[in-house]
Each structure stands twice: as structure tokens, then as C-alpha cells.
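Incident log, structure service

09:12 report received: a user says their structure output differs between two submissions of the same chain.
09:20 pulled the input from the user's history:
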Amino acid sequence: MADMQAALEDTAENTAQVGTLYLCATPIGNLEDMTYRAVRVLGEVPLIAAEDTRHTRQLLTHFDIHTRLTSYHEHNKFAKGPELIDWLLSGQDLACVSDAGLPGISDPGTHLAQLAIAAGIRVTPLPGANAALSALICSGLDTRYFTFIGFLSRQKKERQAQLARAQAHTETLIFYEAPHHLKATLKELADVLGGERQAAACRELTKKFEEFQRGTLAELAAFYAAYEPRGEFVLIVEGASEAGQAVAETAPQDLRTVYEGFLARGLPKKEAMRETAKALGRSRRDVYQELLHD
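09:34 re-ran on a clean worker, output below:
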């Protein structure tokens, strides 16, 4: 018992001798979403690791914070990460911020947290704004179960693999996308996941021109083909139905076979066509035309 108590005391003493890594959320658009706690901690820590120091300096200036900044981003994380861990192990606190939202979501904050945890350093969140969850709760789609995918790969083969994995997910899907890729991404989502899936395109969240477009993937693809996308987007997409998941995973990719499989499950013809389109990643119109002339 005495040995255990001594070990606990040693652990507590060692923890007290190292710094704390704060993962600090920053606004995704509206500066009023900055929390009182985040402002206080950013002013108290001796160093802030920022994805873009110029961007973060503007934020700090707005709140009259004069803490020193250092650059930590995707391209230097393997070299800079160990340096920041040494800083923390020396007993100094550190705050990590991304350009917007929660660090660790689609940025290198995750890598730093993993290094810190492996080194026995305390990691604690400073919660706040997050684009993915903000979009999800306003989408009108199921919020109970969801999968965050973020930005799809720009490499075609890897992107196709990502979408193939996502196709059978029954939970709501969350994607990030930049405006100059949005049209192509919506078309690909409609082609692979099925144009009949309900979705929401959420842009400029918390900003002056915040906007939500809701409809099927096919409808959203058509809308943005006609209107030029502006601003950063979060795409919320309905998951596959359980029946659609089962067929996508087990049935041959033959339209007639898939369609008849749904009929055999007791689905009405119209619903069977819709689920066939989802399972095969095709439009309902194409499915109808092929079955009509089969």
C-alpha cells in the first residue's frame, strides 16, 4: 500500500512539473463565438501554436491578446511537434489553435495531442465553435448517429475508395468542401451515393451570408450548377437505409437483381426503385428507364 501511495505521489509530482496542452476552439466566422475562458487562457499561456500565425494574430489583436505565436501546421508537424513536446515537458503551458473551429478536426492538432498523451502530458479542451456540428444540427437530418468524413481526397483513386466505404453507412455523413470543388463533389456524391438522398449544403456558417440549401443530392447538384458557389461549405448527407446497406454489401451489382431483392423484402415498387438507386449510386430516373426497357 505504501509503495502504491508513493507511486501515485511521484506521478502527481511529475504531472505538476510539465505543462498543459490546451486545444482551443476559435470562431468559424463570428468573433462573438469566442468564449471567455478561451480569451483568458490564450492571454495567460506563454506560447500559442497556430496553423496560420497571420490569421491568428488578427484574432488575438481583436481581443487585445499579446501572447507569442509559433507556426504549427500540416507541413511542419513532424519536425515542429517534438519541439513543442519538449516545451511542454520543460514545464511551460501551450495552446494549440487552428484557423477556425476545433483543433484536431481536419488539421494537425490531432498529431500534437497524440504526441502529448504519449509523453504523459495533460491535454485539455477549450470547447467552442465547430462547423461540422453546427451544420448537422441545422440540416434537418438525423443527428443521433453520424460519421465525420471531412475533406475528400483530391486523389481520384483514394477519393473513390472513401466514397465506396461511405456508401453503405446508415448514419448521416458530414463532408467539408471548398467552393471551387463543390460542383464536382456534389455530382460525384449524387452519382456514387445516389441522387435521391436528402442533403443540406451549409455555407458561411455564423457569418453575414450564412445559407442553408436543403434537398436531394441531385437537386443540390443542379442548383449549384446554375449558381456559382461562394464561401466554405459543410455538406450533410442522409445515410443509406438499412435495406440499401444490406443490398449494397451482399447483392450483385446488377440493377434487376438488386431491384427484385428489394421487392422480395416487401417494398412497394416505387420505394424499391428509390432504394435500388441509392444502393447502386444511380439516379432514380435512370433506374426507372432501365427497368422499363429491360
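09:41 both user submissions now match this output. Likely a transient worker issue. Closing.
09:42 reviewer note: The mean pLDDT is 89. Residues 112 and 227 are 40 Å apart (CA to CA).
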